[in-house]
Amino acid sequence: MKILFNYIFNFRIKLCPKVPIFLTIQKPDYVNRLSVASFASSIKPPPFTGSNYKRWRERAILWFTVMRVMYVTEGKPSQYTPEEKSAFETADNLFRGCLISVLAENLVDTYIRLTTGKQICDALEAQYGVFDAGSELYIMEQFLDYRMVEDRSIVEQAHEIHTLAKDLKNCSKDAPCVLPGKFVAGGIISKLPPSWGDFATSLKYKRHEFTIDGLIGT
């Protein structure tokens, strides 16, 4: 029986010498399925309402860069071939349409009359880029009204308060609103949730002043 089995086994190998012993499994290519269009859609900025311009602008720049049309804000090149002219006009129309789509309804009528993406960008920058008073007041309100909650990380919430203070500083280059570090640190202590009351009280009686990073570390 053993001799017969070896004979059959060897005979099958001779008949199928090219049959692979192991099968390879093709893994699906998930990376290629993520298209530029779907990614761009996921990072589309919210409608600009007239406040928080600088933060909105950074998100819009990222969006237009992913769509590969941000270059039209530099204006039409002085020399180009007919093909380059057609490509630029197509990109400019796409940029202009997308930009109008992320403006609030009360702003559309003002900017839709402009004929190029560069003109719209320049007009927005002239109106809101120099000093974003609405943004400053909004961030100041957020900082003053912020109250920590029990069911979230205290460190994470402390970082959010610190970020608001930095955003307030960056609202204007000409007249930045800079909050002293000890003031921000004191604000963080005052906004701790009720269960942290004893900890907050102990910090208030410390003789040394906390830096923001030192307080968050503590």
Our Rg estimate from Cα atoms comes to: 30 Å
Instruction: Give the helix proportion (percent range).
Output: 55-70%
How many DSSP H or I helices?
12
Strand content: under 5%
The averaged pLDDT comes out at 78
Euclidean distance between termini CA atoms: 79 Å
Shape: elongated
Structural class: mainly alpha
Order of helices and strands: HHHHHHHHHHHH
Describe this structure in words.
61% of the residues lie in helices and 0% in strands. The protein has 218 residues and is an all-alpha fold. It folds into 2 domains: 37-73 and 82-129, no CATH class; 133-217, no CATH class.
Features of the shown structure:
mainly alpha, 12 helices, 0% strand, elongated
State the gist of this model.
The protein is an all-alpha fold and 218 residues long.
Topology:
Blueprint: H1 2-15, H2 30-33, H3 36-42, H4 53-66, H5 82-101, H6 105-111, H7 117-129, H8 133-145, H9 154-169, H10 181-190, H11 197-204, H12 212-217
Helix pairs in contact: 8-9, 9-10
